[in-house]
Amino acid sequence: MQYLTFTCPDIAFSDNQACQFMHNPMESHVVAVKRILRYLKGTLDYGIHFQPGTLNLQAYSDADWASDPNDCRFVSGFVVYLGSSPISWASKKQHTISRSSAEAEYRALAITAAELTWICQLFYDMHVPLLIPPLIHCDNISAISLASNPVFHSKMKHLQIDYHFVRERVIKGDLLVQHVSSADQFADILTKGLSSPLFRHHCSNLMPGSSTHTIVEECKDINYQNHATCQVITG
Amino acid sequence: MQEEIDALHAQGTWDLVPLPYAKNLVGCKWVYRIKKNTDGSIARHKARLVAKGFSQEEGIDYNETFSPVVKPTTVRLVLALAAQFHWPLRQLDVKNAFLYGILQEEVYMTQPRGFTSKLYPDFVCRLRKSLYGLKQAPHARNDRFTSFLPSLGFQASLADPSLFVQHSSHGTMILLFYIDNILLTGSHSSLLTSVIDALTQEFDMKDLGTLTYFLGLQVSYSSSGLFVSQSKYIKELLDRVDLKYSKSYATPCLPYHHLLKDDGKPYSRP
User: Fold this and answer.
1) Which of A74, A62, A64, A13 is nearest to A39 (CA)?
2) Which of A45, A87, A233 sits opposite B229 (nearest CB)?
3) Pairwise CA distance, residues A8 & A31, whole Å
4) pTM
5) In this structure, is residue B50 part of a structural domain?
């Protein structure tokens, strides 16, 4: 089933969650796996649509704070778009425990930046030039300010040095980091289980496929009504 | 079986030699499989000779076993680029991919059952080319391909060793390489054809034409780009776990719910 995340970023989070227990599954975990399969059954025709568009890289990075009651670690998620097509995504539990949400978001930024660096190397190897530096969208203002200046030193001195490579790359101009409101945070779907309307909204953003177009329209209305609640939930 | 033995002989897979003193001997066996058509009818009975790799010892019979696997992001990136520039996508299948690897180590194998040499029944096969089941088979096969591709002007990517790029004044060509599947795309279809010709001369390959099914991904084309899905794979998975007729869910997990480590009873496999 892990292999299915090849074209199904929508199940990346639930998959990652369920996989953590598969060496010694309890009944509730098996129920969770069955739910993923039954979700897949309803979304058989989902897939990724690769469309020609602008040749630029944009990433959305997010972290969910202490979401895991087992070990209080953060889940970080990111999705990278080339133009309008998603090409890379991941939902992953962070290696260390973060002490604040800014710290967690910053670690997520670092993971995303590492992935982008790798993708840029791929582009370089393929002799395809990228005209503008990749852009990361992050919904945490503190993490963004961390990325560009070292003002919060007293709160962040315990972050390992290698995490500051985001800052170095931002200063060199190889990377841009931008704020995005939580409601437009596409990577949200990779860090937590969402309610149905919100899930479908993000899903349509992740997989702009032909079969999901109807859902996009439908979700626009639903999302409009739920906008206020969405912000409360994701904020 | 005769067909398989003939193919192995044609490749020069082994020489018959007496077993030297204090050398490890690897066993072998036949594996039979029934190949089916898409409608379920029997296409052919297939026999494959495999070496018993588990009886090999590291450091004596094999050293390196690593073989790189293509990363999903690379595949998606190549597909996205092909859609972006409207490049044609071609797919090739290497027949008996594992048999191309040339063995660096000295490996001795018993003679295959049913095909023991009448002249030298006590001799053993000294393997020259790799065989299915050998520990180093994937590594040897990978070596063989990666050493051949530069002669066609391809360069391995630093970021992903299974990605090869040929860049010249005529255009760019990208080759992805996954075990026995090759995905090829590039700016000119004439360039693609010449590479496919060169590859088919060196290896026994099947040209599968335009890419439609690669690594379980179904690719379909439209005027607005490429659409990639895995519905066939999902269907097979649902069949296997007997959820074909179940109701579907709108979301893959309960919203804002967290799985706990020790939640409920341990699962016992029925």
Assistant:
1) A13
2) A45
3) 20
4) 0.74
5) yes
Residue B240, domain member (yes or no): no
Rg over alpha carbons for chain B, rounded to the nearest Å, is: 23
b/e burial code for range B99-120 (CB count within 10 A of at least 16 → b): bbbebebebbbbbbeeeeeeee
What residues in A contact B173, CB-CB < 8 Å?
A: none
Nearest chain A residue to B85, by CA: A52
Does residue B120 form part of some domain? yes
Pairing of strands A57-64, A135-138: parallel
Which residue, A90, A9, A81, A16, is CA-closest to A43? A9
Return d(Cα A75, Cα B258) in angstroms, integer: 12
The CA distance from B17 to B72, in Å, is: 44
Averaged pLDDT for residues A66-88 = 79
Domains present along chain A, CATH in parentheses: 52-235 (3.30.420.10)
Task: Say how far apart CA A110 and CA A163 lie, in whole Å.
Answer: 6
Residue A131 has pLDDT above 50, yes or no: yes
Identify the helix (H) or strand (E) that includes residue A58. Answer: strand A57-64
Strands A85-93 and A75-82: antiparallel
3-state SS, residue B194? helix
Report the residue from A4, A21, A119 with minimal CB separation from B234.
Answer: A4
Closest partner CB to B255 (pick from A25, A46, A195): A195
Compute the distance between CA of residue B51 and CA of residue A36 in angstroms, rounded to an integer. 39
Q: How far apart are CA B126 and CA B13, in angstroms?
A: 8
Domain of B49? Answer: 2-227
Per the document, the length of chain B is 270
Q: What is the mean pLDDT of each run of 10 residues along chain B (270 residues)?
A: 76 77 78 73 76 74 71 86 86 76 78 78 79 77 81 82 83 82 85 85 80 80 81 80 76 73 69
Beta strands B205-210 and B102-109 are unpaired
Interface test with B, best of A50, A91, A230 (most B CBs within 10 A): A50
Residue B267 domain-assigned (yes or no) = no
Asked if the model's pLDDT at residue A232 lies above 50, the reply is: no
Note the pLDDT of residue B72. 82
Tokens of B53: 């790799």
Give A24-72 pLDDT, tens digit per residue: 777 778 888 888 888 888 777 777 888 887 888 888 888 876 566 777 7
Reported ipTM: 0.71
Query: How would you label B57-85 residue by residue, b for 16+ Cβ within 10 Å and e otherwise?
Result: eeeebbeeeebbebbbbbbbbbbbbbbbe
CB count in 10 Å sphere of residue B138: 20
Q: How many domains does chain B have?
A: 1
- pLDDT bin (cut points 50, 70, 90) of residue A215 is very low
